[in-house]
Amino acid sequence: CCCFRLTRLFQGQESFEQAPMYVAVMTYLGFGLVTLFGYFRDFLRAVGLEKCHIAKERDEQKDFVPLYQDFENFYTRNLYMRVRDNWNRPICSLPGPVFDVMERVSPDYNWTFRLTGKTIPNVINMGSYNYLGFAENNVDFLKTVAERVQQYGLGVCSTRQEMGNLGIHQELEELVAEFLGVESAMVLGMGFATNSTNIPALVGKGCLILSDELNHTSLILGARLSGATIRVFKHNNMQSLERVLRDAVCSGQPHTHRPWKKIMIMVEGIYSMEGSVVCLPDIVALKKKYKAYLYLDEAHSIGAVGPTGRGVTELFGLDPSDVDVLMGTFTKSFGAAGGYIAGKKELVDYLRSHSHSAVYASAMSPPVTEQILRAMRCIMGLDGTTIGQTRVHRLAENTRYFRSRLQEMGFIIYGNDDSPVIPLLLYMPGKVVAFSRAMLRRKVGVVVVGFPATPITEARARFCLSAAHTKEMLDKVLFDLNEVGDELCLKFSQRKYTSRPKEQHHNNNDLNKDFKQDSL
Amino acid sequence: MAWVEVPGQEKVLKPLLNTVIILGLIKCANFSPQAPAYHLILEGILILWIVRLLFSKTYKLQERSDLTEKEKEDLIEEWQPEPLVPPVSKDHPSMNYDIVSGPPSHNIVVNGKQCINFASFNFLGLLDNERVKQKALASLKKYGVGTCGPRGFYGTFDVHLELEDRLAKFMRTEEAIIYSYGFATIASAIPAYSKRGDIVFVDEAACFSIQKGLQASRSFIKYFKHNDMEDLERLLKEQEIEDQKNPRKARVTRRFVVVEGLYINTADVCPLPALVKLKYKYKVRIFLEESMSFGVLGEHGRGVTEHFGVNIDDIDLISANMENAVASIGGFCCGRSFVIDHQRLSGQGYCFSASLPPMLAAAAIEALNIMEEDPDIFSVLREKCEQVHKALQGTPGMKVLGESYAPALHLQLESSSGSRETDVRMLRRIVDYCLEKQIALTLARYLDKEERFLPPPSIRVVVTVEQTKEDIDRAASCIREAALSILK
């Protein structure tokens, strides 16, 4: 759990309410039952009573060492396959605030899918990372992007260090540096690769990485590939971090006790599975005291938090130069693809010459670069309009409204009040699936996540709000959530919430109406 | 008895101690004088042990736990970390990028000079193709730019499904899976199958993304000499002997061979038929990386399997990026469903990363259309490769590395000066000379300290279908002049 220091009283509160005990018991029972059924099914398959749908190895290679261990796939075969219609849902429109989901049917319990050709139109999109609504196809807004397609084509066919360094890349890098308020920045073609190719360039053997428990896979992969020692501290827990730091500086490297070459703390701005925001002021204070370096991954927070969308540094009123390495992606708030890494000029110069992606990976596609340029200029107000700022404020309003309404309804939601990522806890595997299917029937597209992406007892639905969501859309979603929550008994919260002051709610009459509907 | 505890073990010993006490108490409760003698003796010893444990002082010999607070503060104050990054000198060869203003097409403007492009991997000239651009624009109008999500969470678009379908049909395999970045493709595919304890035999000249994939997999890596099937066979035989010592372990240890179709570092082709024979003899699976050979080799551009006439089902996994011949962004893997489907849940670059922007996928589909409609384009490319290869022969002081039909050749110094830095500087001067004369070339770039088998410095010469005979002759004579004047 996160600490509550004085600085945090001025920011949103974080909550991670625990569910009542019976919920955990039921969840374990549920998994146990499903596992038993799984074993039963495996037995039936082995005996031949049930048809085996799984793809098989070739006859010519039957005597090779099996490619997959049987038990590795137990979960996939018996649990995931039954319910996998809730993921990988194909869409055939823009991933905006509403989208069109393609209808799929399965004649054999999700082993194979067939597209019927029909679409489910105008499903409200609560799953895409479209925080500022830049996933749009407005012809005027995309004029410059279309021009770039015409002028440059799509690919670059070379790496940044060879013949792939285009003038627009350098333009983008300067703009990113200006946006973040740092000296210099470097852009890459893929957000995931930004972490996995740059962390190994910054730290190596003899260095220590202190990584938050719930860091993203790309950060963990980058840390592993670097060869440095990795120690994990409890999620957002400053006492745990300080203890590990103190121990590391005092004891040095294991066995030899030589002092560490460097210590790097890796955290994220917003953790996408928890909705929590990093305790940045405390981490900066710790890092200064123990002379460690800070790597901040702002994949979800850049553009989405802060009064002008500059991320968690702005949210906490800190100087961006306090963070040694600022990293982020353009996929979420900018509606494009790629990532950046920014900081002092020496850092970025070093990465330009030593980053794996600068030497071996393709440069960013020109139209994608242009999309980021226009989105960033819009947020900064450099295009002469206030569209960007309006969107940032609308996102913050939507976030506050949606969160407070969910809490009032009695759902358990995690995370910081300012975070546009809202996990709603469902716990039981059966409810997870029923929830997702029920919401789709009501034309709301939600994302549900279970084990192994989350702890086994904490399966959840994750809502990603967007500045493009109107109040009507949010109200419809809330109405449906209310009904589905009652049908499936999802309102586990034991807290009593009174309605927040008027500034969060636009229309008190609507609120009263809602209260009548959801009074128990 | 010296009871040495280390931090953490205290957590294990306390419950153990409690268990011993409880067992002891139970034993006491069941104590009956009719029990045999050894019973009584054992129980007596147990009671004495418990009493000893209860009264003994547990002392921890924790490392450095005897440091006082003051000493800790001093240590914290004294410790000075290294700077986050070492300083990089201004004239480090990788510091100064060549700046391309405008599109990197056949006529390219490098550092302000209009040149003919011999450096971008635009083999089939599809970067400028009007049809591709029109399709991309149509996709842009419909879908916007980004997909705003990974494949699992509404990031799967109908274009992605179509592209996967088309790639599978084109390569004549059961299934294909696309990634949003070429570098991440093979680097995510290898660790999805090969885990700790498995064995991978890989060619020494394998490219960097393969090396990163291998590093992420934590398997045993055995390198064999470049394109040397005898060396590979020797390693496989050694492994067979090892297996006989421990057959139980051998039954669960997976083995893979990772090779490239056309090697990016040496521009030669792997001996695929011999490799397939070794596959069946020693029961190893083949992973083939075809970034340079997809859309280049073979009568219809299907790559090195078509080039040698090998049955594509014999190759377990083919991986390629779409950033060379296809002139888009991204990568794909294709093969049998049994193999490929696994990556949909365990390929890290697939599950945890946003999907490919739809307009790039639409561009790739149109590129595939063009490749299918006009297979003559591949023989045209092969002809041009032969022309370039021939024209560059006999460059004074330099040798041409690569097959005559490889579209990305290397020009190396015939005799090295002894220092890599000097060689690189000389080659850079040749490149600069050519840039002055309006021929765009580039040095092949590597990370010197990270590569396992660092290739010698070289100039990359890339052949595309858009280059005319005059362009090729001009380039060859320009390089010859440069070599003569600089390498004398």
UniProtKB/TrEMBL annotation, chain A:
SUPFAM superfamilies registered for this protein in UniProt: PLP-dependent transferases
Enzyme superclass (EC): transferase
Domain Aminotransferase class I/classII large, residue spans: 122-478
Entry EC number(s): 2.3.1.50
Main location: endoplasmic reticulum
Record GO cellular component, one term: endoplasmic reticulum membrane
Protein name: serine C-palmitoyltransferase
TrEMBL record, chain B:
GO-annotated biological processes: ceramide biosynthetic process; sphingosine biosynthetic process
Classification via SUPFAM superfamilies: PLP-dependent transferases
Keyword Transferase listed: yes
Keyword presence, Nucleotide-binding: no
EC nos: 2.3.1.50
Listed cofactors: pyridoxal 5'-phosphate
Pathway connected to this protein: Lipid metabolism; sphingolipid metabolism; Sphingolipid metabolism
Enzymatic class: transferase
Keyword annotations of the record: Acyltransferase, Lipid metabolism, Pyridoxal phosphate, Sphingolipid metabolism, Transferase
One Gene Ontology cellular component: membrane
Database matches in Pfam families: Aminotran_1_2 (PF00155)
GO function terms (MF aspect): pyridoxal phosphate binding; serine C-palmitoyltransferase activity
Domain Aminotransferase class I/classII large: 114-477
Catalytic activity as recorded in UniProt: L-serine + hexadecanoyl-CoA + H(+) = 3-oxosphinganine + CO2 + CoA; tetradecanoyl-CoA + L-serine + H(+) = 3-oxohexadecasphinganine + CO2 + CoA; dodecanoyl-CoA + L-serine + H(+) = 3-oxotetradecasphinganine + CO2 + CoA; octadecanoyl-CoA + L-serine + H(+) = 3-oxoeicosasphinganine + CO2 + CoA
InterPro entries for the chain: Aminotransferase_I/II_large, AON_synthase_class-II, PyrdxlP-dep_Trfase, PyrdxlP-dep_Trfase_major, PyrdxlP-dep_Trfase_small
Family of the protein in this entry: Belongs to the class-II pyridoxal-phosphate-dependent aminotransferase family.
Role according to the record: Component of the serine palmitoyltransferase multisubunit enzyme (SPT) that catalyzes the initial and rate-limiting step in sphingolipid biosynthesis by condensing L-serine and activated acyl-CoA (most commonly palmitoyl-CoA) to form long-chain bases. The SPT complex is also composed of SPTLC2 or SPTLC3 and SPTSSA or SPTSSB. Within this complex, the heterodimer with SPTLC2 or SPTLC3 forms the catalytic core. The composition of the serine palmitoyltransferase (SPT) complex determines the substrate preference.
Protein name per its UniProtKB record: Serine palmitoyltransferase 1
Annotated source species: Esox lucius
Gene: SPTLC1
